[in-house]
Design goal:
Strand order of the largest sheet of chain A: 3-4-2-5-1-6-7-8
Number of domains of chain A: 1
Oligomer: heterodimer
Largest sheet of chain B: none
Structural class of chain A: alpha/beta
InterPro entries (chain A): ArsA/GET3_ATPase-like, ATPase_ArsA/GET3, P-loop_NTPase
Protein name (chain A): ArsA family ATPase
Domain ArsA/GET3 Anion-transporting ATPase-like (chain A): 1-267
CATH topology of chain A: Rossmann fold
Shape of chain B: elongated
Number of strands of chain B: 0
Number of strands of chain A: 8
Shape of chain A: elongated
Helix content of chain B: over 70%
Family (chain A): Belongs to the arsA ATPase family.
Pfam families (chain A): ArsA_ATPase
Number of helices of chain A: 10
Bound molecules: adenosine-5'-triphosphate, magnesium ion
Chain lengths: 293, 90
């Protein structure tokens, strides 16, 4: 499966363009998934239908999803609570409720929710040809791309520390006899170690996905938007992520710039208008460009 | 058994005890230094704390650590052993 992420400042046309590209890929017979990872979904408005978590199949080859990110976070915290209840012998889950409530608003939880939803969808739809992603506005999108890199470093450190702890425990258990201790001494027994390993696996999958993806920044032909795009490009190149080209959206004919993929500013009301009206001046078809990535 | 032998035996014993003691201290020191580095320099790898996703995923399996942490908060006067107890140094 090939991955294409559209990102950029609020209102530059991420949703419109990701919809258009997904639609065109599907029309060519490519099995395509379009997914919005923005809190403020608007694919439904563009296609003029209710989409939601379960998704909608449009045409033969196009599946569209708008997962409910907030609901996922709440469910995840509920599940965590259930797991705590099942696993804890001495500490009551009520004592942890305050903490769990606080974590709903912790920085980083949205990024993780979004990545995990991406993980689940990708696993479930492994036989598709294209996954087109409509990303949230820049700041959050960049944090989403950064998280797997940060997580990788942390998991490395924590796994190493945990291994050391297990070795020390084993030594102590060997001296005093294993029966005396109620803690795990090897990697298979230790649920913490196993959980870290599972996290490592999911994270490695996401890292590979992101490193193999094509990220397409969208910008408007105005100074502010260009400045933001510069920052996006700088950040993405720090992580060595692939940016095949930038799309300059809503270009007026007279400010045409060569060397970029430009899209004219058109009077469009519906998706059908859009499909009919949009012309790519640099390439006949942006979808054929994308097909070559 | 002559007096000299006894004295040498005792010396040896003391030696061993000392080594044992320093081993433990060296170990605690190393762990503490690691922890210190992680907490103070964690920012360099992105976050001062691990991403919340790591914490949340681990919590259901960390009752022992939760207890260690709460005990520490209750009767904390010896910082080194506090930290050591978080790191589960026996
Ligand atoms: N080339 C274009 N010509 C005319 N109108 C356009 C063009 N591209 C986008 N628009 C319009 O601009 C508005 C914003 O576009 P869109 O919703 O796709 O942006 P977005 O980046 O997804 O915004 P948000 O950050 O709010 O999700 C829409 O009304 C859309 O129809
Ligand atoms: Mg949008």
């Amino acid at each position: 499966m090939k991955y294409i992420f559209f990102m950029g400042k609020g209102g530059v046309g991420k949703s419109t363009l990701s919809s258009l590209i997904a639609y065109k890929l599907a029309k060519r017979g490519e099995k395509t998934v379009l997914i919005s990872l923005d809190f403020a979904h608007n694919l439904g408005d563009i296609f003029n239908m209710k989409i939601g978590n379960k998704g909608v199949r449009l045409e033969e080859h196009l599946d569209i999803f708008e997962p409910d990110i907030d609901r996922w976070v709440e469910e995840y915290l509920r599940n965590t609570r259930v797991l705590i209840k099942e696993n804890y012998k001495y500490v009551s889950v009520f004592n942890l409720d305050n903490m769990l409530n606080l974590m709903k608003n912790s920085p980083g939880i949205e990024e993780y929710a979004i990545l995990h939803l991406l993980y689940e969808k990708t696993k479930a739809l492994a036989d598709m040809d294209y996954l087109v992603v409509d990303m949230p506005p820049t700041a959050l999108a960049l944090r989403i791309f950064a998280l797997p890199f940060i997580t990788r470093e942390w998991l490395k450190t924590l796994l190493k520390l945990r291994k050391e702890i297990l070795v020390k425990r084993e030594r102590i258990a060997n001296v005093h006899g294993k029966e005396k201790f109620d803690f795990a001494v090897d990697e298979h027994e230790d649920k913490v170690y196993r959980n870290l390993k599972e996290q490592e696996e999911e994270n490695a999958f996401l890292l590979k996905l992101i490193q193999g993806a094509n990220i397409i920044p969208v910008t408007l032909p105005v100074q502010l938007s260009f400045k933001e795009t510069e920052r996006i490009l700088k950040k993405l190149s720090e992580f060595k992520l692939n940016v095949p080209f930038v799309i300059v959206n809503r270009v007026k004919n007279d400010e045409w710039k060569k060397g970029c993929v430009c899209i004219e500013d058109k009077e469009v009301k519906t998706f059908d208008d859009f499909e009919r009206e949009i012309k790519f001046q640099d390439f006949d078809n942006i979808d054929s460009e994308i097909l070559q990535l | 058994m002559n007096f000299d032998k006894i004295r040498r035996f005792l010396q040896l014993l003391e030696e061993v005890q000392k080594n044992k003691a320093t081993d433990i201290i060296e170990f605690e020191l190393k762990e503490t230094e690691n922890l210190f580095a992680l907490i103070t320099l964690g920012e360099m790898v992105g976050y001062a704390n691990p991403p919340v996703s790591i914490t949340l995923s681990l919590i259901p399996y960390m009752e022992r650590e939760v207890i260690l942490m709460t005990n520490r908060a209750v009767d904390s006067n010896d910082k080194l052993s506090d930290i050591a107890s978080i790191m589960e140094v026996e």
